[in-house]
Write a structure and sequence with these properties.
The two termini are 23 Å apart. The protein contains five helices and no strands. It is an all-alpha fold. The protein has two domains: 1-44, no CATH class; 47-103, no CATH class.
Length: 103
């Protein structure tokens, strides 16, 4: 169910001509896979990543904390308020922001 939701989100955000190309590519690969199993490699992601999302998030958070002077002297309230602000920004931005990283 989770995979279907992710697929539907990606498909709805993609340009229609891209979807047609994806379908044609997959159909072609499936048609020749008995002669050439490597044809199914088109199903693998071609996105090359240098950093993990965790590393990027950590770096951004560290930069934010440094720029806002949240150091050891900060109170718990400062951290909670900042966390709530981040959560609010994520809610306003919505799930489409994640799709930008995929392309």
């Amino acid at each position: 169910m989770e995979a279907r939701h992710a697929f539907d989100s990606l498909t709805s955000a993609a340009p229609p001509d891209s979807i047609d190309v994806w379908k044609a590519t997959i159909e072609e690969a499936e048609a020749i896979r008995s002669q050439s199993p490597k044809s199914m490699d088109v199903m693998h992601s071609k996105i090359k990543t240098g950093q993990t999302l965790k590393a990027i998030t950590s770096a951004v958070m560290q930069e934010d904390l440094t720029s806002q002077n949240f150091g050891p002297e900060s109170t718990s309230t400062d951290w909670i308020v900042e966390g709530l602000n981040i959560e609010e920004e994520q809610l306003v931005s919505g799930p489409d922001v994640l799709l930008l990283f995929l392309f």
